[in-house]
Q: What sequence folds into this?
């Protein structure tokens, strides 16, 4: 059945037809929820709420806009309702200052505080030509910058600049005027421009190329697994950051990161499995359990500069976040 036939069947109460009708949009709608909320778990809930609302309202969909536009309108408003009940998500540098390498790591800060990682697998059902754009729009720096915007500005920027909706379509979705949309967009652009690097990770990885990327990943995996601090440090930028949400502690600069790696991280053995998160290189980190086994402990998302130096290691340590990547990895665990 084509979209029109699925729509008609859905209006008659056919749940299977409704599922097939919205299936082509699920990946991009889920990514939209993540950009809005900074949390994959909140994105799950918001999308579920949005699709339930779409199912209930399908009989009233008159086709004055495209189905995609209508679904984004419902999903955006679901995200705005969620956002009204939650604080904005942050990365470690926005939560507090760096600590010295021998400082107290502190207790995990729980609750809806931290920006969460986003599995590239969530984008797998998107059209191939859209995947690069989707990955670029969920990079950590961009999503973190979005969280500094008021919710309405965040929605406007995403709908206009990421998704390409017209000002009139956005105004209709948000129940406001075109003039208000344009004003919010200008303010949002200024804030985000101040907080994102000039070059995206997608551009950096494309310039690096597949073969050099594989060699880079193989090199850091090998060095990490043999606890070769000097080699790891040689792959880091001088101003590298090492963060560990939900722990509040983070380290600033290659010297301090080096002490932390040498004296704390490599006090136990590790096995690493390459993966992808937020459109970026990432490593699933399995820590030795003292009995010859390895347990999944962290997800290290890597941010690279144009010289293929690591400028940030975001080590997500929240078990709920890490477990999602472990399930996606399946049999690709520690070797």
A:
């Amino acid at each position: 059945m084509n979209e029109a036939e699925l729509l008609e069947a859905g209006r008659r109460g056919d749940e299977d037809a409704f599922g097939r009708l919205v299936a082509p949009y699920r990946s991009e709608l889920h990514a939209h929820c993540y950009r809005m909320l900074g949390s994959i778990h909140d994105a799950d809930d918001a999308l579920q709420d949005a699709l339930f609302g779409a199912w209930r309202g399908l009989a009233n969909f008159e086709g004055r806009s495209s189905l995609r536009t209508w679904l984004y309108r419902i999903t955006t408003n679901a995200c705005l309702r969620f956002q009204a009940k939650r604080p904005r998500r942050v990365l470690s540098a926005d939560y507090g200052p760096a600590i010295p390498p021998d400082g107290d790591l502190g207790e995990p800060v729980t609750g809806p505080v931290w920006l969460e990682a986003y599995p590239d697998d969530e984008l797998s059902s998107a059209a191939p030509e859209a995947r690069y754009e989707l990955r670029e729009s969920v990079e950590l720096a961009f999503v973190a910058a979005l969280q500094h915007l008021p919710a309405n500005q965040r929605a406007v920027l995403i709908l206009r600049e990421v998704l390409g909706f017209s000002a009139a379509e956005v105004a209709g979705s948000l129940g406001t005027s075109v003039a208000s949309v344009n004003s919010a967009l200008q303010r949002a652009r200024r804030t985000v421009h101040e907080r994102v690097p000039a070059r995206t990770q997608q551009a950096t990885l494309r310039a690096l190329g597949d073969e050099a990327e594989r060699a880079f990943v193989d090199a850091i995996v090998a060095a990490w697994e043999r606890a070769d601090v000097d080699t790891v440090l040689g792959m880091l930028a001088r101003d590298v950051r090492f963060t560990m949400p939900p722990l509040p502690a983070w380290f600033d600069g290659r010297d301090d990161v080096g002490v932390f790696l040498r004296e704390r991280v490599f006090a136990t053995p590790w096995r690493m499995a390459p993966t992808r998160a937020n459109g970026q290189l990432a490593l699933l980190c399995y820590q030795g359990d003292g009995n010859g086994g390895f347990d999944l402990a962290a997800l290290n998302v890597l941010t690279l500069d144009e010289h293929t130096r690591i400028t940030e290691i975001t080590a997500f340590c929240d078990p709920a976040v890490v477990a999602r990547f472990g399930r996606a990895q399946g049999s690709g665990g520690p070797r």
The first strand starts at residue 236 and ends at 243. The beta strands are 236-243, 250-252, 270-277, 280-288, 294-304, 310-316. DSSP finds 16 helices and six strands in the chain. The domain at 1-86 is CATH 1.10.1740.10 (Rna Polymerase Sigma Factor; Chain: A).
